[in-house]
Amino acid sequence: MTTQYSNQPTGQQHYGAPKAGASGNVFSIIAIVLGVIGFIFLPIVFALGGLIMAIIAKTVRHERLATIAIVVSAIGLVGGMVLGAIFASM
What is the pTM of this model? Predict the structure, then answer.
């Protein structure tokens, strides 16, 4: 059975159709940026949000940069808290 607009059978996709999820690294890049911001300013908000986004990027979207985003966000979280404790004790 074909559609009335083309000769393609219904339910078929084109050969070069993009796959959802694996092609982009949007969540990972946002998580990296949040991890870096969290290292400098409000780590419990920004770096923790980046860590959550990085875990979502790793488990749900299977992004390539997700592991790097997890590491950067974790360093931003711990490093930002240590840096805040050092500045608070001065």
Answer: 0.72
